[in-house]
Amino acid sequence: MTQRLDTLQAALESVLGDAVKRLVRARGEITLTVGADRYLEVARTLRDSPALRFEQLIDLCGVDYADYKNKPWDGLRFCVVSHLLSVTHNWRVRLKVFASDDDLPVVASVNEIWNAANWFEREAFDLFGIIFEGHLDLRRILTDYGFIGHPMRKDFPVTGHVEMRYDAEQRRVIYQPVTIEPREITPRVVREDNYGGLH
To answer: For residue 17, what are the domain limits?
Structure first.
């Protein structure tokens, strides 16, 4: 495993050069971090370079680093993480890019490079509000089109004020005030003498 990672790391450093801002080797994996300004260029090189040949995008997701590990985060807040596979060379790499503006997170779409990115980018847009520049159909995919906000952001409220349901009489989806009373749930502790046969 170490020799394979050495070979992959050498190929990545040779082909990508200064486009890589950070390269981390941990737990038998390599993670590359690149700048948003070179993200599309790096993605295309990862796919097309004969020395790398990452033909397949396995996954792409958004990450909100606010309060990362329950501590203040010193850096850009929104990140897009992709997992790539080279069938040719039988190796994998993780590619990370941080959006340069926390208030309006924008990164380039890689859908033209790996068409598997289409729905993944829509999901990251829907849940985190990350805009993928160049995506031809960037719209919500999991939440309702009238939904306000991005529910996977760490500052999104835990409880809401409006719920949506289908009304059979009106034969349409309606919005109404939340019908569940907010409450704090405390687990009930059962104490028994001789529990589990212990005396």
So the answer is: 2-145
